Amino acid sequence: MELWVGALNLGFLYAFVAIGIYITFRIHDFPDITVDGTFTTGAAISSVLVVSGVHPLLAVLASFLACSAAGSITALINTRLNVNSLLAGILVMTGLYSVNLHIMGRSNIPLLDTPEFFTLLNKANPGLPREPWTALCLTLIMAASWFAVSFFFKTDFGLSMRATGNNPTMARAAGINVDHVKIFGVAIANGLVGISGSLVAQYQGFADIGMGIGTVVTGLASVIIGESILKKHSVYTWIASAIIGSVIFRFMIATALYAGMDPIDLKLMTAIFVLITLVVTAKIGKGKAKMKKKHLVTAAVAAAVILGVFASVKYGDLVAVMPQ
Asked: Given 122, 123, 205, 265, which residue has the most CB atoms within 10 angstroms?
């Protein structure tokens, strides 16, 4: 039971990454690799501040602001220096590795016996087991976050962001400063990723310099899974799909671990799964609507086969059956 409740909690915590990826990838059409660095930045800043005695909520806010600044740098490089968005993200992500090491002072910061956000939550626990109580609190937090983000995109400025991503030429003709809106959008997206990194570090009890590797792929997988489940064209549904996709993705990982998969294979499985899904989505998008169900079934079967192979075949078993 603890494995599945823990997967639910991590799904909620990584949902901020999924929302951030959705903002850059879907709304702004901006492939932002910066998130691999800002996730670690959020964890690093939060851990250093919490260990120093700063209130955990202030540490989360500091992570949000710092990661927003990093995201704005990526967008500035793209808009002001006319550097390709992908390359701009790679440049900032690479620089953040050194910045994160300077923030942490070492490669790993443990948070053992340190009052952090989830310690505060547990103080209000009426007597439930720790993990289910955390899941209940995170459910309320994510519900509030879902409503806040969705409501923001219904405001005038939120509509400007959506218009900028859909048709920058028309948005510019309507008097919208496309560059400013893009900078703000990428900054907010990375700020949300920083919140996720901060909370994940406090939940897991440590911050590590390599914990952000593959964050963009994880977030993209969550977005794709969520979009395949919720199809309605509503901003509330869009944000909900990212959250639901994050939770489902974490349950997939928990299932793989429960089945016996080696943890070092998880990121490989994630990358293959995202690749298969992207290819299937592209085929459907080319007008092969009649083949939609067939492609989806093919993707599901392929993902199941990959999961089964990794879960059931161990490296020791392979060596045992290989001819000597």
From this structure: 265
